[in-house]
Amino acid sequence: MSGARLALSPPLRKFPLMQPDVVEVSIKSLMPTANGCAVFLGNDAKTFVIYVDPSVGSAISMTMNGVKKERPLTHDLIGHIFLGFGISLERVIINDVSDGTYFARVILHMQNELGRKFLELDARPSDSIVLALQQKRPIFVSRQVFETVEDMTEILERVLKQQKEDQKGEEEQ
């Protein structure tokens, strides 16, 4: 497995299973950019942006809009594998940011006749977001990351307002 890391509980060093030092967020908007998509994540207190590649942006958009696909995409396959092995996605935690690159952990739960396990996997936030949306599971951000990132609430509100005005102007023509 190149680059993939699997950790069984513990070493949930930074994020124990019930870590209170996280903030729940949701997707506030998804916008195309020249190189992919901007995913605006946040809550009532703050909004921040993560840039994702076009294919994952498309997967996020299709999942948000309930688009039916002819064939399963990679994230669909992962969900099917989870189902087949009796694994459930508990939550996603965006746990770090360094030089504009975000890092995330997916927390999985598995329970069978052999016992109960929690797994913590290193993952790209973009992939983690798609999985959380598909599985209808929460997305969290570490408080440290949340306090570090630039608040984009005002910018998002301006862009959305401009889009509404542009759309209204097109409808009037």
Blueprint (SSEs and pairs):
Elements: E1 6-8, E2 22-33, E3 36-42, E4 47-52, H1 54-64, H2 74-84, E5 87-98, E6 101-112, E7 115-123, H3 125-135, E8 139-142, H4 143-148, H5 153-172
Parallel strand pairs: 5-8
Antiparallel strand pairs: 1-7, 2-3, 2-8, 3-4, 5-6, 6-7
Task: Describe this structure as you would to a colleague.
The protein has 173 residues and is an alpha+beta fold. It is built from 5 helices and 8 strands, in the order ββββααβββαβαα. An 8-stranded mixed beta sheet has the order 1-7-6-5-8-2-3-4. Strand 2 (22-33) and strand 3 form a beta hairpin. It starts with 5 loop residues before the first strand and ends with a helix.
Structural class: alpha+beta
Bin the strand percentage: 35-45%
Overall tally of domains: 1
| Text of the CATH class | Alpha Beta
CA radius of gyration: 18 Å
Instruction: State the share of residues found in helices, binned by percent.
Output: 25-40%
List keywords for this structure.
single chain; Bifunctional nuclease domain; alpha+beta; 34% helix; 173 residues; 8-stranded mixed β-sheet
Please summarize what this structure is.
The protein is an alpha+beta fold and 173 residues long. Helix content is 34%, strand content 38%.
